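Problem: given the chain below (223 residues), write out its structure.
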Amino acid sequence: MSLEYNTERDSLTLREYGRNVQNLVKHIKTEEDKEKRNKYAALLVELMKMINPEFSKDAQEYTQKVWDDLFIISKFDLDVESPFPIPEDTILDRKPDRMRYQSNEIKFRHYGRNIEILIKNAIDLEDPKEKEGAIIAIGKLMKSFYLTWNRDNIEDEQVLKNIKQLSNNQLDIDIEKVKTYGLFDSTRKERSYDNNQRNKRNNNNKGGGKRNFHNKRRRNNNK
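Solution.
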C-alpha cells in the first residue's frame, strides 16, 4: 500500500472546493467526447454549488461565479460549452474595485447622515399633513440622537433651527405648537395634539351639519 503525502500532491487552485473537485476537473479534461465533457462539467458545477450551501443557488451571478471557478481550476484549459462567457486568465490578476464612499460632509455629525436623507424625503412630500408628520418624526429622532452624545438637553427651537438649516428652509412648523404639545419629545402630548385636531374636525363637521339642516329647513319654508 503506497502512501501519498500532501507535499507530493499538486497544490490546490481553489481550496474552498477541495482536492476531489480538482481531480474531477482533471478527469473531465481527459474525456475525448465533447458532449460527455459538457455533461460532466454541468454536473460538476452543480456539485460545486452544493459545497457552499450558504450562497444562493438560484442567483445567476453565483452560478456564473461557479463556472468561472471551474475554468480557473482547470487553468483555463477546459474545452466545454459554458452558459456564460468563458473568463480570461487575466481574471486572476484583476484587483477588486475600490469601495466608493460618499465624499460630502455631514453638517451635523451627532444627527448622522440618515437624518439628512429623511429630511430630503420629507421635502418631496406634497401632502401638508404628511409633511408636518414627517417634520415631527424627524424632530423626535434629532432630539434623541442629540441626547445620545450630549448630557444637556436641546431646546425645541434649536431642533427646528437645525431642520430648517438642513432643508434649506423648505421644512418648517409652528414652534409654539411644538412646544405646547411637546411634539418633539412626548408621545403622550402628541396624542393630546392629535385628539385636539380630531375634535376641531368633528366640531367643523357638526357645524356644517347644522348649517345644512337650517338651509334645508329654509328651503322647505320657501316652498
